Amino acid sequence: MSRVFRAAALGMAVVAGSVLALPGTASADAIRDRQWHLVALEIARAQQVSSGEGVLVAVTDTGVDDRHGELAGAVVDGREFGEGASGNGKADTDGHGTAMAGLIAGRGLPGGGGVLGIAPKATILPVQTIHSEFGGSPENLAAGIEWAVSQGARVICIAAVTSEYPEVKNAVEAAVRADVVVVAGVGNAPEDKRVGFPAKVPGVVAVAGTGKDGTHAAVSATGPEVVLAAPAVDIVSTGAFGRYVTGDGTSNATAIVAGVVALVRARYPNLPAAEVVRRLTATATDRGRPGRDDEYGYGVVNPVAALTATLPEPTGAASGGAGRRPGRDGAVGPGWLVLGGGVVAGMVVWLLRRRTR
Question: Where does the signal peptide begin and end (predicted)?
Answer without folding.
Answer: 1-21
